[in-house]
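ugh finaly. both done.
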Amino acid sequence: MGKNQNTQSSSDDDDDLEEEEFIVERILDRRIKNNVVEFYLKWKNFPDTENTWEPETNLDCPDLIAEFERTRARQQTEKSSPSINATNTKRRNLSRDDDQDFRSAPNQNLDNSKRKRANDYGYGRGYDIEKILGATDVYGELMFLIKWKETDKPELVPARIANVKSPQMVIKFYEERLTWANTEENSTIINEK
């Protein structure tokens, strides 16, 4: 991403978000994990070792998804068809082997999640955050489950992005869950002072 020489560099937090935009070359496979549809993607200008599983909600390639689903549906009808010649059977067997390779591919989501920018989430679609519903660890990265005002479908967003884009909501989320240990020992110490 080129910058004008006249502009001043932004803060370190902004630099973390200014990353290269990645383009999906093709969709290789589909799965459902934890009730979330994910696609195994080949990224343009990257080797196959950089292929990753990504949630459908994070993708902006409806044409590729539609093409993949049409091909997948066609293959499933061929499987159910009683008249299959040997060539089709051989192709299908190769496809199944390839599918197994994709499913057993090492999960590199931590490295690849750093590729994602704020624009890849509701922030990029102009959505306003309604509430942070929860937090979880996904492949070693803290993620917030965010409910957007514009949609009923919540979305997992890396905390590093939410911390920058919605700091007050993050603080509110933590404050709502803050608990104080209220023991007799603590009250005795306070009363002695």
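ok and the 2nd:
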Amino acid sequence: MMMMFRNNVQATSSTVLAMMMTRSLRYSSSSSSASAASASAASAAATSSAASGAVERMPKFLVTGSTGQLGVQLVSLLRSTFGAASTLATDVRLPTDQNMLNEGPYAFLDVTNGDAVRRLADQHEATHIVHLASLLSAVGEANPELALRIGNEGTKNVLEAARDCEGGSPRTVYAPSSIAVFGPSAGKVAGDKSHLMPSTVYGITKVHLELLGAYYRKKYGVDFRSLRYPGVVSATPGGGGTTDWSMDMLMYARQMLSDKAAGKTTTAIPFECFLKKDTFLPYVSMDDTLNETVKFMSASQPPQCTYSVTGLSFTPEQLHESIRRHIPEFEVTYNPCAVRQKIADSWPDSCEDSAARRDWNWNPAVSTADALVDQILFHEDADDAGEQNLQKATIK
């Protein structure tokens, strides 16, 4: 079952978004009709902007790659915050989570088709494009040509759609990068100024994304923003990344706890990890990823386009030991995948994120493996209605 850390997201985002209420975004295009869920907030925003003579509206988002690990949950958060009609989810396949189809607009979109990207952005009157479409590290190594097309052509098409905006200012683009931009030359602790020499085609596409986004910001005024995510950990299946073992291990542990609670016999089959037990890599919880991404998107334009960020670092063995605090019989065997292990060995152990903390207050809550395990194994799903308490904000 798709899981979202709703309680923590609600608590943190309410504070963050309330703080952002003092900021406003002005457009030269006229306001479209707001959804019922966001009508009162949109009306208040319009009243506030009347004194300045500017036309203001609630932000509207086009999200590419919406059916991926991050996309499903970010779309849900944006819709619950800004209204169901605010966010057009897109991808090249239908989502397995029917909530995405039931709760708001959805459209097929191949990001390598530039005309289609621009057409949907114009039809939705998008003020922001959230570009998540990509092939992750391990999958990209198996399909390098496709990874380059999606990563490079897709990014160019999104930036062109942002620059060539019908009747208004350039659209804001948020497109995450990754620790995959680093290679062995970056050292064990990598940061914003570290050498970029990726070892994978996925990393190459992310370097291209960062540089092209910075170019469009300087030349065309596109407000391009990007975060170099480490491994993002949630209780959902990954999409072919090198750090997916962490989610697989935690989901295996969750299933054992569920079986115990139901009085079923738990499996005696050990979990098989595809990385060596001492492979030390940086990670961030999905909860923190959602909160901090919305914070970053909502901040005044930061000095940098791209920031390195992290939450915590650990090895498979350390995560295993954290799980054993609650499931003593939980066993793991290690059967390293040559491709993924080589990729992992080329990445840094941790990331230096002082600039993100200084410039826009990057502040993840989960900083230890024990805290991550406790969050994923023992949180309870909140009512969907609970998210309606998130206050409306105007994203910068």
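summary for the 2nd one i guess: DSSP finds 14 helices and 17 strands in the chain.
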